[in-house]
Write a structure and sequence with these properties.
The chain is mainly α. It folds into 2 domains: about 80 residues, Helicase, Ruva Protein, domain 3 (Orthogonal Bundle); about 50 residues. It is about 60% helix and about 0% strand. The protein is built from 6 helices and no strands. Helix 2 crosses helix 3 and helix 3 crosses helix 4. It is elongated and about 95 Å long. The termini are far apart.
Amino acid sequence: MRRLACILALIAAPAFAVQPDEVLDDPVMEERARDISSGLRCLVCRNESIDESNATLARDLRLLVRDRLVAGDSNDEVVDFIVARYGEYVLLNPRAAGSTWFLWLAGPAMLLAGTGIAIGYVRRRSQAEGPASGLSDAEETRLRQILDD
């Protein structure tokens, strides 16, 4: 049983980089802070949340989130404050508004365009080949002669 606990501790250890001195005394506030920080991108590590990153900037952002929560900001106000300071890129899941609509629609649009191109290619290719024509009598006779040899 002790061995299993050690293995689970090793697996769970890299899950969060939050230091003990960062943790808030109020468990509800800490849960809110973790919820917010799991949706914010570490600007150093790129596709890692600030909750998972060990970078100094990620630590500063985690502390900033907790300071704003202690000051009485709502979750949305904290996120808006961070976005106003660091830009929309700080969000791991960008909002679907304004200029990001292009990014949200580009993937499905490319999929539809690729499917249309593939269907068009297959149709043109099958029409270009046409039906397979059979061998003439002379060709069949010659083929039998070649195969008999």
